[in-house]
Amino acid sequence: TPSHRQRAESESARSNTPQHPVRNPIHNRNAIHNHNMSVSMVHGGLVGLKSRTSTPTPTRVAAARPIAFRAVSARVAQHASSSLFLSGAARPLLKQTAFAIRTRRSATVKTQATAAQPPAPAPAAPTPAPAPKGANMKSLAISVGCGLVLWFIPPPAGVAIKAWKLLSVFVGTIVGIITMPLPLGAVAMIGLGVAMSTGVMTFAAAFSAFSSEIPWLIAIAFFLARGFIKTGLGNRIAYMIVAAFGKTTLGLVYSLVFAEALLAPAIPSVAARAGGIFLPIAKALALACGSDPEKGTERKMGSFMMLTMFQTSCISSSMFITAMAANPLSVNLAASITGHTITWGEWALAASVPGVLALILVPLFLYIVYPPELKETPEAPLLAKEKLKVLGPMTKDEKIMGASLLVTVALWIGGSSIGIGSVAAALIGLTALLVTGVVSWKECLAEGGAWDTLTWFAALIAMADYLNKYGLITWLSGKVVGLIGGLGLAWQPTFVVVMAIYVYAHYMFASGAAHIGAMYTAFLSVLIACGAPPVPSAIVLGIFSNLMGCTTHYGIGSAPPYFSQKYVPLGTWWTLGGAVSVIHMVLWLGVGSVWWKAIGLY
Q: Which one, of 460, 443, 488, 463, lies nearest residue 224 by Cα?
């Protein structure tokens, strides 16, 4: 039909029109051919450059690239002069080719520029802040100020001038030990220097306590502890107890508690026992059971474990003279008042029954009021057994250390019956370690804690002793006796009142040694003046000089290591510490008094 013929002619005309290159097979073939040639020229120019460059260093490549691109551009322009290449089909392909050249050239230039640049220097490590030099001036000013205030106050009636001046030096030294502008030994030496410079004490008086055997006993015990930790015997004993008794959380904690109490006589530093042996074990076991404060799971087991280990470290420190660094100071001060030197065996026997009861009851109390979420710990014995496998059989040094320790502890207990004192027993054990090479004398010299303790012990002992000789302690005891005696109480309730004042005054002290040096002599004198039996009073004051550390997170050497793990909030630490202190007052003054009567202490 006419309409069909017109439509067919129109379609034929459109098919022969050159402005539609897409439908023209000849134009399509030519355009594709020319486009492929252009791209090949680009690629060939780059490949040829690479093949002709014998050493493609970044400098040579960067210099040759512009030449190659100019050559390729010229060849592309030559082909562009053909009519087919300039046809409508070729124009978009030409644009694509030019864009490919520019893109490849830009990428190549950027790559070569980056390769040619030297590597950026690593950021410098931050320079650590230099350690502070000298004393903490604020703390030093506080301690000096306290001493000066007393120095210029007229002494009360009945107190000698020299006694009052020595008291001012003593108070300044005690405040310095609390605030610690310098290490304890340095503070004590400064105190002795002031006492001698002002004529309050002579050289012989100031250094008289360095001939006392108590400071040397504790120093030698530090040397023994070095061998105990160095050989790994302490860790082995702890792991053995955990492997045997650690299937439940409560059983695990009890195994650590009694392991720590077993090691306490051999390691005189409660901070060393806590931070060096039992805190790493406790934390490893807590993490193995999934208790981690960083993940919010501290109450699963770690909170109960850390708080209990801290609280019982105060108990184990109170059970033996050699279990805490300041206990020998109590013994020495008691000897100056009562004329009786408390032996290692007397102290241990007096503390044995109430101490064991406290080690049982305090964890149980905390288990009830601050319970762990995880009650079963089957992983703990397995972890302890794995640690024991890693340790392997006992080494020769461990066996020597164990034998030396057994001999030393046996002589501490019964050596007095054969004429061997505590220091001689410690020296026998140390001699065995030195001769066999388990501990070297160089390691003993490097044991800074031993020498520091020896220094400040001796200084405080000397000052406290001469305060008593100058009559100050007698005057102070008389005043307190008059105050408490006016209450009309028998010595038993008076004993409770004095002990309560002594214990809760520890909130003002960050050191058991400072507390003992400041208050032990006066309060013991008060108890004796009120009719209390001297030897039990001296021992109980010494025991509570350790137990009172349970109240705060700074009152005893084991508190900071355990508290710093962030398993227990500060408020909980103080609240439960106060509650445990009440348990100690009831248990030790109740059950303890019955036990002391039974063994004939009074």
A: 443
| Distance from C-alpha of 583 to C-alpha of 567, rounded to nearest angstrom | 23
> Who contacts 538 (Cβ-Cβ below 8 Å, separation ≥6)?
330, 334, 337, 338, 340, 342, 524
Exposed, middle or buried: residue 373 (CB in 10 Å: 0-12, 13-18, 19+)? middle
SS3 239: helix
Rounded to whole angstroms, how far apart are CA atoms 256 and 244?
11
Q: Which of helix, strand or coil describes residue 394?
A: coil
The residue ranges of DSSP E strands in 457-580, in sequence order, are: none
Q: If you search the block for the tokens 């032990």, which residue do you land on?
A: 520
Q: Which tokens hold the place of 579?
A: 């509650």
Token duo for residue 75 = 């060849």
Cβ count near 424 (within 10 Å):
14
Cβ-based neighbours of 200, under 8 Å, separated by 6 or more? 162, 165, 166, 169
Q: For the beta carbon of residue 100, count every other beta carbon within 10 angstroms.
A: 15
Return the CA Rg of the chain. 42
**CB–CB of 559/310 below 8 Å?**
yes
3-class SS at 248? strand
Other Cβ atoms within 10 Å of 128 Cβ, number: 6
Contact 232, 398 (CB under 8 A): yes
Q: Check: pTM over 0.90? Answer yes or no.
A: no
Q: How far apart are CA 196 and CA 597, in angstroms?
A: 45
Crossing angle for the helix pair 491-504 and 534-547, nearest 10 degrees? Answer: 30
* Main-chain dihedrals φ then ψ at residue 51, nearest 5 degrees: -75, -30
Residue given tokens 């039990």 in the structure block: 536
Can you tell me the mean pLDDT for 54-58?
46
One-letter amino acid for residue 168 of the chain: S
Task: Tell me the C-alpha to C-alpha distance, in Å, between residue 196 and each of 199, 201, 312.
Answer: 5, 5, 41
Beta bridge partners of 376: 248
22 DSSP assignment: G
Closest CA to 587 of 342, 359, 256: 359
Phi, then psi, of 376 in degrees rounded to 5? -110, 140
> Which residue has tokens 């002795």?
192
From CA 602, how far away is CA 599, in angstroms rounded?
8
Closest CA to 196 of 150, 165, 220: 165
Residues 506-553 pLDDT 10s: 887 777 888 898 889 888 988 888 889 999 999 999 999 999 999 988
Token pair for 431: 């001699």
Please say whether the beta carbons of 403 and 412 come within 8 A.
Answer: no
In contact, 362 and 308? CB cutoff 8 Å:
yes
Q: Give the tens place of pLDDT for each residue, 417-467.
A: 888 887 898 899 999 999 999 999 999 999 888 898 889 888 888 888 888
Q: Whole-number mean pLDDT of the chain?
A: 80
Separation between Cα atoms, residue 23 and residue 356, nearest integer Å? 104
In degrees rounded to 5, what are phi and psi of residue 66? -60, -35
Q: Give the Å distances, CA to CA, from 488 to 415, 476, 501, 532, 593.
A: 44, 19, 18, 15, 22
